[in-house]
Amino acid sequence: MEKRNKILVVVVLMMVSVSTFIRWYFFEVDSRTNLILAGISVVVLTSAILFFRRLYAYFDKVLPYDTRIVRRLILQIVIMFIFVNIVTQGILYAATHFFNITKVDYLVKKEFTPLAKITGYLSQALFVILLNVGHFTYYSLQKWRESALRASNLEKEKSQVQFDNLKNQLNPHFLFNSLTSLDSLIQENPTLARDFLQQLSKVFRYVLKNKEKGLVSLETELSFIKHYVSLLKTRFGESLYVDYAIADNTFDLQITPVTLQILIENAIKHNIINENNPLTIHIKSEGDTLVIENNIQRKKQVETSNGQGLMNLRTLYSFLSDREIMISTEEDVFSVKIPLI
């Protein structure tokens, strides 16, 4: 509001200065009279602006812009023009009759030609029109900003909901395969089955504990992903290899929970994994970026893939960081670069 007041003060001073110069240059009004008229202009313009604020607030209640824009603008312009004329005539009358400023009376009656009077009316009309149009433009800009912000927030909320769905549940195939592996281990190796079950509980505990969090430290995410990979290796054995090359100074940087789980799951979902075609996943840091790479050996048919996982991840990170997730495919390597926050 303070900034708007400063702008209005500058506008009033500019209009008064211009009108003072016109009276002096074109109509040769003497300095004393011109100064009096400049003071009158300041009073008229300030009164008009204050009146316009009251009028604007009143019309906001009885005739909002959202209903009838043209009708409201016409009414505001007509009422403002009448008000400005009444105030101008009133001040001129007071100056000549109550304060006995005879020079102003003489100027008004004798020196103002019809053309000068028309120019005065046109100046008042221009001021009133610019005031209304300027205010309406400001109102429209504010509405546009609000709409853009609302749309951005809705997009963010939609992305967050979609990503939360990914965070709050592990892949059903992963759970099914884990339980199948656990069933066979219970019979063959009870000790290993107990270790497997502990790893599984840690994975689910992490998901439940961090599902409401927007960000976790990279160290926390890596600790979780190692438990997750341990369970995967029970199923794939040496056909799945995951290595880590993480700089110590990046452990405290932050990442969205289960980001790595989603990316590893995506790699397993889209690639063949067997003894003849092992899948290798590299997780490494490059400055403030985490890089996840895997060799490409595509499956002919991918089950339960709608292509939304990486898209949701990328959309979510667009709200968390100025840097984008970079996804690339070069020769036989698929790479995803995650900005660390």
Describe the structure.
- It is a single chain.
- The chain is 68% helix and 11% strand.
- The relative contact order is 0.07.
- The chain has ten helices and seven strands.
- The radius of gyration is 37 Å and the shape is rod-shaped.
- The two termini are 35 Å apart.
- It has helices spanning 2-25, 31-62, 69-97, 102-111, 114-167, 172-188, 190-210, 218-236, 259-270, 308-320; strands spanning 216-217, 240-245, 254-255, 279-286, 289-295, 326-330, 333-339.
- It is α+β, with helices and mostly antiparallel strands and 341 residues long.
- The chain has two domains: 2-153, no CATH class; 168-339, Heat Shock Protein 90 (2-Layer Sandwich).
- α3 (69-97) packs across α5 (114-167) and α5 (114-167) packs across α10 (308-320).
- β4 and β5 form a beta hairpin.
- The strands form two sheets. Strands 2-4-5-7-6 form a five-stranded mixed β-sheet, covered by helices on one side. Strands 1-3 form a two-stranded antiparallel sheet.
- Please name the CATH architecture of the largest domain: 2-Layer Sandwich
The total tally of domains equals 2
Mean pLDDT: 78
Q: Count the DSSP helices.
A: 10
Q: Which structural category fits the helices and strands?
A: alpha+beta
- What would CATH call the class of the largest domain? Alpha Beta
- Spatial arrangement of strands, main beta sheet: 2-4-5-7-6
Number of strands: 7
Shape, please? rod-shaped
**Helix/strand order:** HHHHHHHEHEEHEEHEE
Computed over alpha carbons, the radius of gyration is 37 Å
Any low-confidence stretches, pLDDT <50, length ≥5?
A: none
Straight-line N-to-C gap: 35 Å
Tell me what portion of residues adopts beta-strand conformation: 5-15%
